[in-house]
Amino acid sequence: MKTLRRKLICYSDQLIPETAEIDKYLLSFLGTNQPRIGYIPSASDPTRKYFQNQQAYYARYNINLEPYFELDNIYRPEHLDALFTADAIHLSGGNTFNFLHWLRVRNLLDALRQYVEQGGVLVGVSAGAILMTPDIRTALLCGDTAPIENIETGGLGLVDFAIVPHFGCYATLEQLENYSRENCITVYACSDSAGIVIEDDKVECIGNVKVIRNGLVTKL
């Protein structure tokens, strides 16, 4: 069996002190003193408020957050080379359905998959983490709404399980058990301080993560 080549960091939330343990894994993946992370927001950020917060977060680790690569209102394809030569790419939080829609419009899903296969590090926060899964419908369990009916929900498929961030804030455990059972998929539900680190074939849970297989909570 071919060994998967993956370096993925999935945060439920990120801009809180409790995620420092997850950050350690990200820094080890980057493996350089002055790394550069490309940033893809889920939607336009005209005042750069969210981007600047993220910049400040990464600056504590001497990480340069660039380029800012918007998908919808200010799309600059001339920045694609800079994005895909970054040490890592950050997929922001936001509405997962909107995010996926614009990644499809810009034909970036295959490019992101190839980036990971070639050794790039992919960081996903909330919606960004859900995008790494085979199907993003778990976003409905996290407060997201789909903008149109019958929207395409197939994600990047970089992992073979579902991710539910913000566990304890929206969906109940019963809902997650039902989702797992009805969709025949394992669900990883993360509290805001928790995350999932994937390196090749290894999956490691950091913090409070519930794993539901076949509709039942499983011990890690």
Summarize the structure.
The protein has 220 residues and is an alpha/beta fold. The protein has helices at 20-30, 49-59, 80-84, 96-105, 109-117, 127-130, 173-183, and strands at 7-11, 36-40, 64-68, 88-91, 121-125, 162-164, 187-190, 195-199, 202-206, 209-213, 216-218.
Topology:
Layout: E1 7-11, H1 20-30, E2 36-40, H2 49-59, E3 64-68, H3 80-84, E4 88-91, H4 96-105, H5 109-117, E5 121-125, H6 127-130, E6 162-164, H7 173-183, E7 187-190, E8 195-199, E9 202-206, E10 209-213, E11 216-218
Parallel strand pairs: 1-5, 2-3, 2-4, 4-5, 6-7
Antiparallel strand pairs: 1-8, 7-10, 8-9, 10-11
What does this structure look like?
The protein is of the alpha/beta class and 220 residues long. The chain has one domain (7-218): 3-Layer(aba) Sandwich (Rossmann fold). 28% of the residues lie in helices and 22% in strands. The chain has helices at residues 20-30, 49-59, 80-84, 96-105, 109-117, 127-130, 173-183, and strands spanning 7-11, 36-40, 64-68, 88-91, 121-125, 162-164, 187-190, 195-199, 202-206, 209-213, 216-218. It has a 7-stranded mixed β-sheet, with helices on both faces. β8 and β9 (202-206) form a beta hairpin. The longest helix is centred in the first third of the chain and has 11 residues, at 20-30. It is globular. It starts with 6 loop residues before the first strand and ends with a strand. The model has no long low-confidence stretch (mean pLDDT 92).
